[in-house]
Amino acid sequence: MNASTDRPLDQVTCFPDVPEYHDPVEPTFAPELRAGQVLDGRFVIGGPLSRSGMATIYQAQDALNHHELVAVKVPHLRYEADPNFFSRFQREDEIGGKLNHPFLLKFIPVEKKSRPYIVTEYLSGCTLAHLLNALRPLPEKDALRIASLLCEALQYMHGRGVIHRDLKPGNIMICRDRTFRLMDFGIASSVDSRKITIHGVTATMGTPEYMSPEQVKNRRGDERSDIYCLGAVLYEMLTGVVPFQHENCWVSMSNRVTGDPIAPRKLSPNLFAQAEEIILHAMQRDPGSRYPTVAAMKAELDAPRNVRVTGYCDRLQAPRWRLSLRETPVFAGTFLAVGFISLQVVAFLLLRHFLGN
After folding, report:
1. Annotated catalytic, 166?
2. Fewer CB within 10 Å, N or C, the chain?
3. Is 23-121 in CATH node 3.30.200.20?
4. What pTM does this model have?
C-alpha cells in the first residue's frame, strides 16, 4: 500500500472505534470441518465465522505461514457434487485470485486441494451493514468518502473485466486498522467467462434491495450495474433506509424496474442537493443515463459542490404495478407459477368435494 491507502478510513470520523463482530452461527449436527482439524496438512481449523445456505466460512491458522489467521470457505457437502455450483465456486476462486488491490479481499493460492474450498485473508472488524444498524444515516461527508473509496475498488475490477454484481453493505468490511475490503465475488462475472446457470437462476442473482433493474430483468449487466448498486448503497448511507423498501422482495424488485426511488432529500431534508443529484444519477433505470464509469462518479463524489443540480428529483416517477414476462421475468414467472399451482389445488379440492357427494 502507498501512503494514500495505508489507512483510507482515517477521514471517516463517524465510527472512531470499529468493533470486532461476526453474526452468530447456529451449530449444526454435521459440520463440514471440525475445530482442530488440519485441512490438507496446512490449515488448522478453528470456529465458524459465518454460514450461508451453500457454504460455511471458518477461521483457521496457516501452518505454512507462521500460523497467520486466515478464513476458509467450504461449500456444504450436498453442493460439492453439483456441477453448476462447483463451476460458480471455482469461478469465484479464479476471479478472486487474479485481483490484487488493497481495497479488495485478498485470496490465498493453494496448489493442491483434497476438496473444494477457498482461502482468503482474515479481517478483523465488522461489515458496513453492522455499523449502519448502530448509526444511520451517516454524516454526508463520511458517506461520500466511503462511496469514493468503493469507486476505486470497482475501477480496478472493471479495468480487469470483472463486474461485482452484488455490492451491498454486507459485502463491505470495515476493518479495525482503518482499512476496508470489498468482499464476496460469488456472483461476479468476467468478460472472458461463460454464463453459468445456478439452479435455474442466472444474472438475476443478487440482493433484491440493491440489485439493478437489468438484473431484475435477468440480463447480465455491465459496469453500470455496479454503479447502480453503489448508488443504492449511498442512498442507504445518507437516508438511513434502502431504496424501494418493501416487506415483499418481489415487489421491491418490480418497483425498481417501473419507477424511481423516493427523492433522498424527502427522507433526509438536511442533505445537500448535490449529494441527492449524485445518487439519482447513479440510480437511473436506463444504464445509458447513469455515470458511464465509476471514475466519472468518483470525480463528483470527491468534489460534490461542483455537481450541477438538474432538478431531476422533481421529475421522479412513482413505481407502478406491471406484471411482465419481458421486463420482470423472474417475478412474473414466479407469480404465474404460484397462481397455476393454486388453481390446481383448488380444482383438486372441488373435484374431491363433488366425488364425495
Report:
1. yes
2. C
3. yes
4. 0.85
